[in-house]
Amino acid sequence: MAILTDITTLEDIKLLVDSFYSKVQKDQFIGPIFNEKIGSRWPEHLEKMYRFWQTILFEVHSYSGSPFPPHKQLPVSKEHFERWMEIFIETTDSLFVGPLAEEAKIRAKNMAEMFNYKIEYFRNAEKN
Question: Is pTM, for the whole model, over 0.85?
Fold first, then answer.
């Protein structure tokens, strides 16, 4: 059994992102939503995610943009975000251990909670 280390390089981020989204694509609950939205653009999405996590974890400012707008109209609920987090934590814990791995899980949890809150907010605002 390999000894797990922390996330320290861009290659580590690529491993995390590729492993995570490979599981997401196959997941029966959230996979269809991602696959329908992203379609054949998975390579571009993964590249964007590498830059996003590099910016978040290494403070290398390779990502620019606003991550929320593309998610605003997705047909998702709290349960979808919970499943997303389960897969993210499981993937991270299977590959890495250390402060940046923990930071990645905290950041992912905060992002999932914020996205869920904002999506619900916009849905409720549109009803009124």
Answer: yes
